Amino acid sequence: MFPLNFVALPRSSILNSKVHPTLRNRRRWWSLAAVLLMAPTLCVVAQPAFAAGSPKLPEIRMHRGNGVPACVTPDRLMAFLKMRNGNLSPRYRDIAKWYRHHGEAWRVRWDFAFYQMALETNFLSYRRGNGEPGDVKPEQNNFAGIGATGGGVAGDRFANVSTGVLAQIQHLVAYSGEPVDRPVAARTALKQNDIVSTMRRLNRPPRFSDLARRWAADARYANSIAAIAESFARTFCEEAQRQRAADNSALSAWPPPTPNTGAKARANVVAKTVWRRGDTPPKQPTEPVAITPPPLPQATPRSSEQAEAAADTATGTNGILSGLQSMAKSMRQNLGQWPAALQDPPAIIAPSPRPADRVPRLLRGSDYQTKQPLLHDLLQR
Fold this sequence. Notes:
The structure is a single chain. By secondary structure, this protein is mainly alpha-helical. The chain has a domain at 74-245. Helix content is 51%, strand content 0%. It is built from 13 helices and no strands. It is elongated. Mean pLDDT is 77; it is low at 1-17 and 40-51.
C-alpha cells in the first residue's frame, strides 16, 4: 500500500517528483521476494500432468534398445490370461498372436499393449472390480476403451478381434506423437491431431507412463499397468531365468575331458622336410623297429554242400585259366619265330614313267602303215 498523500498528488507532480533512495531499495527487495515466492507455483504448473511417484514404464515405440523381452511369448501371455480368467471365450485364442503381429508391424511394444488390454477389460471379462458389467461389451471387440468416455458411453465397435487389436495399436501410435493415415478407429481419426500435438510437447519419446490422465482419467493408470507387467514377469520370466541358470550351472559342473599330454606334445612337433647346409641331420634309430604283421585270416569250416560248390567253382575257374595260359604260350612261340627287324631298310625308289620311250618300240618293223592308226590312238590318250 502506498501513502495517501502520494495518491493525492497531481499527475505532473508524480512524474517530476524524486523517489527517496531508501524507498527505491525497499521496492526492489519486495519485488525480488515476490518472484521467489511465485517460482515454486510456476514450476508446479509447468510439470506434466501425471501422478507423482508413477513408475517409469518403457517407451511406446520399439527400437534397438527398447524391445520385447525374450521371455514374453504369445503362448505365455495366453497362459497368463487363462490364469486370471478361467471362463475365457474361445474366440480370443489368437489374441496374443494378433498383438505381436500388429505390434511388430507398427513398432509398438505389444507386450505392454497386452497388459493395457488386460487392465481395460479386466482380463477380457469386461466387468468392474465389483463384478458389474462395464460400459464396453465383449461383442464390440474394443480392447482399450477407445471412445468410452464414461457415463454409459460404449465407445467404438470393431468387426473382429484382429481389427480391435489394430485399433488399439494405432491409437498408441498417435500417443507416441506420430499421426496415423486412415486409422480404423473413428475416435483416433477424430482426436489424433490433438493427441499428437500434446505428446510432442513432452520433447522426448512418450512412454506408457504418460498415458495416465491422458488415455484414462485415473492418476494411477500407469501403476496398474506396471502391476500386471510385474505379475507376468514373476510368473514366467523369473521361472525362465531360473531354468536358464540351472542349465548353465549343470553345464559348468560337467567334468571336462582329461587332456592327452602326449598327443598334445606330438601335435606341437613339426616334421622338418627341407634341410639346409650346416643343419644337424636327424638321428637314425640304433635298433630296427619290429613290425608285427597282422594275423592271417583263419579258414572257417564248411559244410559238404559248400565244399562241392567251391570245388565246381574252382574247376571252372581253373579251366578258363589253363586256356588263357596255353594261348599266351603259343603267342610267345610265334613271336620267337618272327625275323628280327632290319636295322637299315633299303630305300624304295619308284620308277618314273617315260611314255616317249614307247614310240620307237611301236614304230619298229616294216608295216608302218598298219601301225599308224595304233600310234595315233596312243597319242590321243
